[in-house]
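Note to self: keep these together.
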Amino acid sequence: MRIRRFTLTALAAAASLCAALTPVTAVAQERTHDSGAGTATVANTASRAQLDAYWTPERIRDARPMPAPAPAVDRAAAGAVARESGEPVHIPATRPTAGSGAQIRSSVWGTVGRLYFTIPGKGDYICSANVVTSNNRSVVATARHCGFGDGGTNYRFAPNYDKGNAPYGWWGWRSAGWLTGGGQENDSAFLVLDTPNGRRVQDVVGSTGLGFNWSSNYAHILGLPADKDYAVWCEGQGYAGPGGQRLMDNCNGLSGGASGGAWIEHYQADGSATQTGAYSGSYGSAAAASSYGNAAYDVWNGAQNS
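Structure:
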């Protein structure tokens, strides 16, 4: 594992006192793919003021790392599962918009960040997420197990986050989509962020590109473990797991809070890269991630055009 940090500006003053948030309503999509993956969506009905008021300093301090899901051992024991076929798709990375005020290039170190959220009746949690290229310039990729399908709400994201510092601010959320069914191979979700004061997150920090239906190549995994609270990475040769997930050996240090981080390929010297999955957790001694196929493409496409 390699550790990389940036010097960041101080976090703005914390939000005001708690206000109850309006529940969200999920709408299931009908399409089911060959791999057994379906899709679902949810729309946020709470205001930005309510969201900011919810995240008091106490709630931020007490939020816990979201536990990673246990691997579906029975699926692995049964051998390789059905995988979708399709032509590889590449969506290029983007740079910050001129005049956005960003002092970084289109680097995954600037686009990956901290994700806070709530699961009603259970508490407040943290995961990681990454800004990815989209038409609406407002989409982040994360893991399904980060509250999606469990009534998750109050999503709040800061790119380039480092130990409480959010140099480019916080974004709330408008909607989300995720894969249903399956295990780690389908542990994918895409979150559409709001536009505070007209600011779109992709314009401010740029975006990581996306790859769908890619093979497992040499890769990096980036996430923000809670015990460090800043972005770290590991790297190695990726390979296909028995459940259709992506696996990497010798990847230590991506503990709780790193879930939803980016599995990236074609990492370049300037930090640009292509995300082809979301970090899910462990599979035995290996690190595991989802594998973006046709179903993930459908969810991302819906998110980028919402």
